[in-house]
Amino acid sequence: MSDETSAPYASELSAKTSVKSVKKLADLNSLSKEELVDRIRQLEFHVNQLKNVIAKNNGEKSGRAKHYKDRPFDWSKHSRRHVALRIAYLGWNYKGYVVQEDTNETIEHVLFDALVATKLIKNRETSNYHRCGRTDKGVSAFCQVISIDLRSTQSSGLGVVPAENPVETDKPKPELDYTGILNRILPDEIRVLAWVPVKTDFSARFDCNSRIYKYYFPKGDLNIELMKEAAQRLQGSHDFRNLCKMDVGNGVTCFVRQIDKAEVMSETDDGYSICVFTVVSKAFLWHQIRCIMALVFMVGKGLEKPSIIDELFDVEKHPCKPQYTMANELPLNLFECLYDDLEWSYNPDEVERLVSHYQQLWSKQTVKSTMLKALIDHLTNHSPTADHYHADFLLSDYRRHSEHRPLLSRTTCSSLEDRKEYYAKRRKLDKCLKGTAVESSNPSD
Fold first, then answer.
1. 382-414: b (≥16 Cβ within 10 Å) or e
2. What's the whole-number average pLDDT of the chain?
3. What mean pLDDT is predicted for residues 432-444?
4. How many CB atoms lie within 10 A of CB 439?
5. How many angstroms separate the CA atoms of 239 and 254, rounded?
6. Ordered DSSP codes for 108-133
7. Secondary structure letter of residue 138 according to DSSP
8. What's the domain count of the chain?
9. Each residue of 335-348: pLDDT tens digit?
10. Do the domain assignments include residue 323?
């Protein structure tokens, strides 16, 4: 719009505004004193509403809410209670369970963010925290257990540490709904299933009697009977240095572990059926289960004999681990952690919400799976002799139609003795370097 055409329009608008103002002033003049006071009060209330809206849009809080937020939380008024939490998580999109320096995408990081945000703990350092197990990148858990001191409403009872400056109250309060509080702010992949009060010296790590892992996989063209035979050979006490990733740098030099149970279960012989490998032990080594599964898959594909397990247990004959790639992490699950005398407390209302939550996740994945199966069926109608490739992705170094190199003829890793010597020299060198640094920073007279 040009200046010439806009001038008449502006004049007309100004005239209309002036007329409205005169009419409003005439209306106000006709009001009584009481009516004017009411009108002023209405306008003040409306102004306050607008101020709150503006403050909210600016990310601020006003009045009582702002005062409450700024007021420091007085931890001395609250009791603490040592509890165990049973946690489930789908770890497919996380970098592992344990907090890491170079990423925030870990289960533990997200969990502690929730614990601090809900004021259940002040910080991790003072929370008396232990975890049952460490799961790697992409690994899930249906029963990760942690022990920790949480804020409590109770002044006495199992695991309770009374407040320093308790607030006197006549009415007893129910304990905090730990599962509900945390699940309201945790992401979809992580949920607290249950909790239980425990003794103040209870440790989720050291008081665990047994850990059960499950590894889910499609049958495909695998020979399940051979895999079952290989699994049976794992049971008992063995040196697993050739079936794990040796962590000598962190002081692990004994690789003997007791496997209480190892079995492969398959309900049907259909290539699309899901099989389960279950392994039970009190303690596991770094990447032990994924290394085991790599060998069991080789056996199932007919690339190695079940006796390869016994061969690799013979560390005098085979002191160095053959180089092979671990099985995929996606199907691995910390399925259960067993303790003495723990009676988990489940909130029925929260369980109902959890069931609904997991049903929705299941539905989404099942729809995707069904759609893919329909596409596969369409294609196999045009190729009735198509092979079963379902399980190939679980063993990343397997190449169909390529020649398999037997494990015992492959290049090997360093032996345990070589690694011990390497880290001994490294520690000695680090010690010398530290000594040199001290001398250079404190020169003699």
1. eeeeeeeebbbebbeebeeeeeeeebeeeeebe
2. 86
3. 48
4. 10
5. 8
6. HHHHHHHHHHTTS-S-STTS--EES-
7. T
8. 2
9. 999 999 899 999 99
10. yes
- The confidence score (pLDDT) of residue 264 equals 97
Q: What is the pLDDT of residue 64?
A: 47
What is this structure's pTM?
Answer: 0.79
**437 in any annotated domain:** no
Cβ contacts of 409 within 8 Å, gap of 6 or more: none
**Cβ pair 273, 267 in contact under 8 A:** yes
Residues of the chain above pLDDT 90, percent: 63
**Residue 335 within any structural domain of the chain:** no
Helix (DSSP H) and strand (DSSP E) numbers for the chain:
10, 10
Identify the CATH number of the domain in which residue 235 sits: 3.30.70.660
Q: Which of 71, 87, 107 is the last residue of a domain?
A: 71
Instruction: Read off the DSSP letter of residue 141.
Output: E
Contact 59, 69 (CB under 8 A): no
Mode of pairing for the β-strands spanning 79-89 and 256-265: unpaired
Q: Is the pLDDT of residue 314 over 80?
A: yes
pLDDT of residue 69 exceeding 70, the answer is no
Half-sphere exposure of 229 (CA within 13 A, CB side): 14
| Distance in angstroms (rounded) separating the CA atoms of residues 143 and 337 | 6
178-187, 254-263, 385-394: least confidently modelled range: 385-394
Please tell me whether residue 363 adopts helix, strand or coil conformation: helix
Q: Are 191 and 357 in contact (CB under 8 A)?
A: yes
Catalytic annotation present for 136: yes
| Pairwise CA distance, residues 176 & 255, whole Å | 43
CA–CA dist 313, 295 (Å, integer): 12
Angle between the N-to-C axes of helices 288-300 and 224-234, in degrees from 0 to 180, rounded to the nearest 10: 140
Q: Which of 38, 74, 136, 392 is catalytic?
A: 136
List the one residue out of 91, 93, 95, 115 whose CA is nearest residue 106. 95
Q: Which domain holds residue 225?
A: 210-328+395-417
Question: Is the distance from CB of 197 to CB of 81 less than 8 angstroms?
Answer: yes
Q: Is residue 93 part of a domain?
A: no
- What pLDDT shows up at residue 440? 41
Contact 264, 297 (CB under 8 A): no
Cα gap 322→407, rounded to integer Å: 6
Q: DSSP class of residue 96? A: -
Higher local confidence (pLDDT), 165 or 402: 165
Q: Could you give the CA distance from residue 324 to residue 295 in angstroms, rounded to a whole number?
A: 9
Query: Among the three residues 71, 104, 135, which one is the final residue of a domain in this structure?
Result: 71
The predicted pLDDT at position 250 comes to: 84
